[in-house]
Amino acid sequence: xGRFLDADARAAFKHAIETIENxxxxxxxxxxxxxxxxxxxxxxxxASTLAFVGLAVMLFAEHEFGxxxxxxxxxxxxxxxxxxxxxxxxxxxxxTTTGARRRTVAAAARAHFVDHGVHATxxxxxxLVYMSxxxxxxxxxxxxxxxxxxxxxxxxxxxxxxxxxxxGGGVAVARKLEALAxxxxxxxxxxxxxxxxxxxxIDSDMDGT
Length: 209
Hints:
Mean pLDDT: 93
Low-confidence stretches: none
Strand order of the largest sheet: 3-2-1-4
Radius of gyration: 22 Å
Number of strands: 4
Number of helices: 9
Shape: elongated
Number of domains: 2
Structural class: alpha/beta
CATH architecture of the largest domain: Roll
Oligomer: single chain
Distance between the termini: 7 Å
CATH class of the largest domain: Alpha Beta
């Protein structure tokens, strides 16, 4: 996780934000989250499977287990296995459908958009670039002023390109973001009286990793 937002990636995102904002009236906010949902069903699935396997082994193994062990040990195994899922995020990702991950990230992005005031710019020109690490998903949320002027389907296409770029690391995503500058300039040309209304720093809960 730390490598995704290393110094080079942060510099690349800073440059991408500046490039878009210097070319257009769009206000870009970049946010990074470790995960956008708890996905507790993965913990339950692993815990239940391990408990069943543990119980089956104890019942059918040649070694004779005591009744107390048969009663208690499967639950202990389940608790340990369910807890281990928290340090194995790839398990949660693979035990959750792509559609469910996408919907969770989209909901978290919309909440972030409102909670952090990206919707409060003068010209309704905010664009949130929300990246979620566990899901390997990028969600774009544009304010109404920008959304009305973008070509149909442009935001969905850009979102998919940014999501695909996550496999290449933070710098790759930042470069794809920077490539959106001409489209943003065409959708919302810069005005002489435009001011920077939103912070340019990356809002991340992955700092220090």
